[in-house]
Amino acid sequence: MPNHVAEATTEQNNTYRVHKHLIPEFGKMRMNEILPGHVQEFVRNCQKKGLAPSTIHRIITVLSAIFSTALVNQIVFIHPCKGVVLPRMRKLSNQLRRSMPRVLPGRSCCPRPRGGAG
After folding, report:
1. How many CB atoms lie within 10 A of CB 89?
2. Second CATH level (architecture) for the domain 8-89
3. 14: number of CA atoms within 13 Å, CB side?
4. Long-range CB pairs of 6-14, under 8 A, 24+ apart, other chains included
5. Full-model pTM
6. Quick one: which of 24, 35, 36, 112 has the most CB atoms within 10 Å?
7. Which residue ranges make up each domain of the chain?
8. How far from the centroid of its chain's Cα atoms is residue 98's Cα?
9. What is the Cβ-side half-sphere exposure of residue 24, based on CA atoms within 13 angstroms?
């Protein structure tokens, strides 16, 4: 995705998602042949394979970025990810949320040691 700026590890993860999930599913199709129904079917197949909702969201985010760039560059004229229903992400339970440290913007999650340095 040449128009997207990302950290090196993010770029590696996105490349992995393209090669592991997207190319096997859509690689033989032309971009303008991929319709929302194809993407929705892909999402259903990911769910059947047992992929976590967060993983499916990340894969579709990559696919959506590819199609957003293609749309801007007039390679395609519809965005097949628009309107696709993604699986719901599970919310953290209240107990788990309470057990996690709160981090405020600009603050470390770890308290500073008390006392002077010396």
Report:
1. 11
2. Orthogonal Bundle (1.10)
3. 17
4. 13/58, 14/62
5. 0.71
6. 36
7. 8-89
8. 26
9. 9
